[in-house]
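Lab notebook: predicted structure, single chain.

Context: the supervisor wants predicted structures on file for every construct in the current expression panel, including those that have not yet been purified. This is the next one on the list. No modifications to the sequence; it matches the entry in the shared construct table.
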Amino acid sequence: MSGMLSGILPVLPTPFRADGAVDIEAMRRLVRFACDAGVQGVVFPGFASEVETLTPSERAELLGVVVKEAAGRVPVIAGASAASPQEVIDHGKVAGALGVTHLMVQPPKSVGAGAREVGAFLAEVANALPAMEIILQNAPAPRGSDLAPEAIVEIAAAIPQITYVKEETLPAGPAITHILAEAPKTLKGVIGGGGARYILDEYARGACAAMPALELADAHVDLDAAWRRGDREKASAIYVRTLPLLTLQAVYRMRLTKHVLMRRGMLSEVQVRAPTPMMDRYAVEDIDANLRTLGLLSDAASEVA
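Prediction complete. Output recorded below exactly as produced.
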């Protein structure tokens, strides 16, 4: 088994060109942006990557770009969620061939929320991919299965390859506390989700890492560093400054992420495939005002854009 995952592990968005095709060069820029920001790992693909709109070949190609561009500077976590164990296994084999050792899997809702059924699904995956560490993603309904923390502990105890849980049910805090209190020794840690909107509570409860979206990676790295050196006041100040934008991100999702990354010079297009609310002029003005507050957008840059 590999070393401990910790810190900020952003889920990378999928950049698209104006014609809707994936933008490989922009994907490289996003990985460089993440690494330059000081993240401790990157995740691809995930929900924030519009994974459900990607073909298997696009997923494989883009994951290869991420691994190559990361070049060993940070670990790459491959998302492999799918409707059947065999599909998860197929995604996992692609990732394994690229040298990836961590696989994040959200059990499909069709399996249910029982420890026995979900455990059987994940056991089939684990048995077929013995070299992989599995991150069990527990997403809230309606997108996820909303597994109870008791079920997660039972599943993790039965499958030692599940070394992390990404817990993002609402509220995630009590679930994180329960999982860490009852976790088997093979479980290395719990990772927070929810776009870092609850990161301070997650860290206070013992979460080892967070998986936000990418657009504020540098601010999240600074927050994480402040927290780990015991500067709770600075960590809280960064959190309070970023929270208004993260609240808007909960509504506009990938559209906001890509808009911010465009404003920051990482993307030239904000094209999305996934169904997401459109941002009208007032929404864009609100987002840009938050960016100016964060020092990420000058008035001149806003006028040019």
